[in-house]
């Protein structure tokens, strides 16, 4: 076997091995995700859809505290910048088109604040320290945090990125969320927030 042919064979084996490793890694990730999401669906009275193939990402759908909910994953970017995200979407009646953005404190939010980005301050030291809140009408947004149940559920979650736009509450995080306890807390938080939005007196 000449050197050129050896290089060709080795190149093919490397490609095949790489593809196989990616497929195995994806399969193991999907299996772990399916097990945890199946537990969540069972505990919450929701429905798990495993998808059409063993590599498909599952989804969880149903009604939670009177609101339609969808838990799934999606990808953003391409090539080396391609990343997978976990997403929860919940419907909410929002007649006054209240808008809200709430996310955890980090170095980027600190920089934005230093550059003059305006956040809503609640005069609640723990909430103001851990989260950045934007939205309008500002006085109505503040009312949401006056409810003890929502505040307590919020403080039980170490990091968040959620928004209310139109009739949809949306949560996102980078990576595939497989922690059943955290997912359950997120569902409860979104359900509580949706209820408070619908009960606000304008």
Low-confidence stretches: 106-112
Largest sheet: 8 strands, antiparallel
Number of domains: 1
Strands across the major sheet, in which order? 1-2-3-4-8-7-5-6
Estimate the global geometry from the Cα principal axes. elongated
- H and E order: HEEEEEHHEHHEEH
Beta-strand residue fraction: 25-35%
Measured between the Cα atoms of the first and last residue, the distance is: 82 Å
CA gyration radius, whole angstroms = 22 Å
Mean pLDDT reading: 83
Helix content class = 40-55%
Q: What structural class results from the helix and strand content? A: alpha+beta
Q: How many helical elements?
A: 6
Tally of strands: 8
Q: Describe it for me?
A:
- Helix 5 packs antiparallel against helix 6.
- The longest helix is centred in the first third of the chain and has 42 residues, at 3-44.
- A hairpin with a 6-residue loop joins strand 3 and strand 4.
- The protein has an 8-stranded antiparallel sheet with strand order 1-2-3-4-8-7-5-6.
- The chain is elongated and about 75 Å long.
- By secondary structure, it is α+β, with helices and mostly antiparallel strands.
- It starts with a helix and ends with a helix.
- It has helices spanning 3-44, 107-114, 125-130, 138-144, 148-155, 180-199, and strands spanning 47-49, 59-64, 67-76, 83-91, 99-104, 131-136, 161-165, 168-174.
- The protein has one domain (3-199).
- Residues 106-112 have low confidence and may be disordered.
Summarize the structure.
This protein has helices spanning 3-44, 107-114, 125-130, 138-144, 148-155, 180-199, and strands at 47-49, 59-64, 67-76, 83-91, 99-104, 131-136, 161-165, 168-174.
């Amino acid at each position: 076997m000449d050197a050129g042919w050896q290089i060709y064979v080795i190149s093919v084996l490397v490609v095949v091995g790489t593809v196989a490793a990616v497929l195995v890694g994806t399969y193991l990730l999907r299996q772990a995700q399916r097990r945890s999401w199946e537990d969540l669906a069972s505990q919450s009275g929701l429905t798990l859809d495993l998808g059409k193939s063993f590599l498909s990402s599952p989804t969880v759908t149903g009604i939670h505290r009177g609101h339609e909910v969808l838990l799934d994953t999606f990808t953003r970017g391409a090539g080396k910048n391609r990343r997978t995200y976990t997403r929860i979407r919940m419907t909410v009646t929002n007649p006054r088109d209240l808008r809200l953005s709430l996310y955890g404190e980090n170095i980027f939010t600190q920089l934005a604040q230093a550059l003059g980005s305006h956040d809503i301050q609640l005069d609640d030291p723990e909430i103001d320290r851990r989260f950045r809140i934007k939205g309008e009408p500002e006085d109505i947004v503040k009312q949401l945090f006056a409810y003890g149940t929502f505040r307590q559920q919020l403080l039980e979650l170490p990091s968040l990125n959620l928004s209310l736009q139109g009739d949809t509450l949306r949560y996102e995080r980078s990576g595939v969320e497989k922690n059943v306890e955290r997912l359950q807390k997120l569902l409860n938080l979104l359900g509580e927030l949706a209820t408070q939005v619908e009960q606000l007196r304008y």
